[in-house]
Amino acid sequence: MLFPESWLRAFVNPDLDTDALAHRLTMAGLEVEGTAPAAPPFSGVVVARIQEIAPHPNADKLRVCQVDDGSGATLQIVCGAPNAAAGIKVPLARVGAELPGGMKIGKAKMRGVESSGMLCSARELGLSQDHAGLLELDEDAPVGASLRDVLDLDDTVFELKIGRAHV
């Protein structure tokens, strides 16, 4: 059984660090098999809103997005995701961001059009294997906020060993 530490702490919040909490659970009869971060490390990723989208002039499968990242300046991002659409909120890896696996984001030209960052799928962030399109965020996610904070990705996941009940 997997559950996030934040879920447990919402019910009870003992003054213990993660390791001590895992030990206390084991001593109480719930065998903690392990703990793991909720998400791999990445930095520089924020909530962004796609304001406008247009076809790329030199590539059929790419589109040029005008994006609000909360900085006050509109960013131009070239994107190939099929679900990119005006009005949705998605993760944006800003220039300077580092994604899982050490990928660093810089300004780039894609088929002659400048791109100032990267709109991300869940797979690119190491959150799941889904790479069918951009990770769509809730409408109430604040533009410019750290994605790690919005999705509580600095949480720890506990894995409990659940035995079979004997009848």
Report on the structure:
- The chain has three helices and ten strands; from the N terminus they run E-H-H-E-E-E-E-E-E-E-E-H-E.
- The protein has helices at 5-11, 18-27, 147-150, and strands at 2-4, 32-37, 43-56, 59-68, 74-79, 89-98, 108-110, 113-115, 118-119, 156-160.
- The strands form three sheets. The chain has a five-stranded antiparallel β-sheet with strand order 5-4-3-6-9. Strands 1-10-2 form a three-stranded antiparallel β-sheet. The protein has a two-stranded antiparallel ribbon with strand order 7-8.
- The model has no long low-confidence stretch (mean pLDDT 92).
Salient structural properties:
10 strands, three-stranded antiparallel β-sheet, 167 residues, single chain, elongated, five-stranded antiparallel β-sheet, mainly beta
Short description:
The protein is mainly beta and 167 residues long. Helices cover 13% and strands 37% of the residues.
Strand order of the largest sheet: 5-4-3-6-9
What is the 3D shape? Answer: elongated
**What's the number of helices?**
3
Number of strands: 10
**What gap, in angstroms, lies between the N and C termini?**
21 Å
Helical amount: 10-25%
Write the layout of secondary structure elements.
Blueprint: E1 2-4, H1 5-11, H2 18-27, E2 32-37, E3 43-56, E4 59-68, E5 74-79, E6 89-98, E7 108-110, E8 113-115, E9 118-119, H3 147-150, E10 156-160
Antiparallel strand pairs: 1-10, 2-10, 3-4, 3-6, 4-5, 6-9, 7-8
